[in-house]
Amino acid sequence: MLKHAILYPLFLVAGCIASLVGIFGGSFIWFLVVLLLAIGLTTWGAFDIRLGYFTPTFFRKKYNAEGRVALTFDDGPSLHTTEVLRLLKAYQSKATFFCIGKQVLAYPHIAKQIVDEGHTIGNHTYAHPKSFGFLKEKDVVAELEQCSSIIYQTVGKTPKLFRPPFGVTNPSVAKGVQYTKQQIIGWSNRSLDTVTLQEDKIYERVCKKLKSGDIILFHDTSQRTVNVLKRLLPYLQKQGYISVSVDDLLNLHGYEK
Ligand SMILES: [Zn+2]
């Protein structure tokens, strides 16, 4: 298994042996090979949340999920969230909203509506800093705690589920999440709705890969996503899928008791 805790010491030992080979008259090529492998795997592990390279992550329900998927929405709440909520209600679907603390402060009534309508709110940091992947453990903890505290003050629940901005994990994020006792939630079906401008392509991308147990990543921050949802929800219904919250899909607790 590709796990940082196992591979890091292995790379250290291999690196030492390879540099000794170079020092004692051999070639330094092996040192270079080990170095490049270590950098490559660490970068891959940091950006592919499904690997769980630095810390355990949930990204789908592998077994016993017949017909169930979990729609998730990041970066809200925003003014588009109310339309997302209206559509979810019309199709009797539940979802998980990974909210940014600052956005909850800006739209507390929408955050309350999310919970009142039976959806789950997860933590997506206080400010969603672009530098999230470079924060020290104490700064990761500060981002997580500040967001959780705002969510608690707004909806009366402390989230247990956390989705890292940009899906980045690294040793600081792993330790931070261990400290706050939260569970990292990734995704298995990525809509790319913030990158792809054509709604058709977003819709087709999600449908093409769709399978039971999927955790589907959207952002409740644009009309584009709302429009895709208008087509996706009837499609899910027609195909016999039902969207449930991530905690429901994975049998986890969404909030601290
Ligand atoms: Zn985000």
Structural class: alpha/beta
Instruction: Please give the number of β-strands.
Output: 9
What compounds are bound to the protein? Answer: zinc ion
Provide the low-confidence segments as ranges. Answer: none
Largest sheet: 6 strands, parallel
Fold-level CATH name of the largest domain: TIM Barrel
By DSSP (H or I, 4+ residues per run), the number of helices equals 10
Terminal-residue CA separation? 33 Å
The CATH architecture term of the largest domain is Alpha-Beta Barrel
- Percentage of residues assigned to helices: 40-55%
Domain count: the total is: 2
The percent range for strand residues is 5-15%
Instruction: State mean pLDDT (0 to 100 scale).
Output: 94
The radius of gyration computed from the alpha-carbon positions, rounded to a whole number of angstroms, is 20 Å
Shape: globular
CATH homologous superfamily assignment of the largest domain: Glycoside hydrolase/deacetylase
- Given this structure, which CATH class of the largest domain is correct? Alpha Beta
Encode the helix/strand succession as letters. Answer: HHEEHEHHEHEHEEHEHEH
Task: Please give a structural write-up.
One of its GO terms (molecular function) is hydrolase activity, acting on carbon-nitrogen (but not peptide) bonds. This is Polysaccharide deacetylase family protein. The protein has helices spanning 4-23, 29-47, 81-90, 101-106, 108-116, 137-155, 171-180, 199-209, 223-239, 246-250; strands at 57-58, 68-74, 95-99, 120-123, 161-162, 183-185, 189-190, 215-219, 242-243. It has 2 domains: 4-47; 57-250, Glycoside hydrolase/deacetylase (TIM Barrel), CATH 3.20.20.370. The chain has 257 residues and is an alpha/beta fold. The mean pLDDT is 94. Helix 1 runs antiparallel to helix 2 and helix 3 (81-90) runs parallel beside helix 9. Zinc ion binds next to loops. Residues 74-75, 124, 128, 165 line the site of zinc ion.
